[in-house]
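Input/output pair, single chain:
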Amino acid sequence: MYRIRSVKLGNATSWAVSGRIHSLIHEEIVDNITSISLHIPNFCSEQEDRLREKLNWEAEQIERNDKIHNALEFDKSHLLSLTACASANKYHVKLPEILDNDGGAGEIEETMMWFALSQVKSNVEDQAERKRTRSNGSENGAHRSHLIETSIWMNNDWRLRWIRRMGRREAQIQILLYFLILSLPGPQPLHPESPEMSSVKRRKRPQSKIAPVATP
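Output:
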């Protein structure tokens, strides 16, 4: 409430002044409330738009994270992530079989493996060929390349070193994928579950008292 200081005027004059002041204050309050009420719908619509954008963004993030989780899960047959046992089996059993049989199922990973192997072989062969050319310049080029390729490919130590190097690279990739999984947020709960009360809390929970019915 607003207090009005008393002035030494007549009773009629003082009451008129105080009434005028109260009316001005009332008009000011009404004008402020009216101006605020005009901005409330715009403010509410802006808040709704922001909330809708936030919910859409969160839904997109959850969907994107779920897709990454599904691609990196360990229990999938088409997985990207490998356990230590699966990685060891891949480079100690499957890869040597593919190299020995000169085959594979034609998948993308095996195609890239053959491409990497051909690049490594070509680099090693070029180096060996340059050395052999300097020592034996008159040797036939095609026959020399075939001998170099055969000697490199049939060299068991070289093949083991190459497979071991590929296995180390696979381990580094798996570590990065594992840290990627750890950095992703967990799956969102579908419905928030209400916390269950323990038996002690249920016993201590106050029960509503029933008033006794008065008998006549």
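Residues 1-51 form one domain. The two ends are 54 Å apart (CA to CA).
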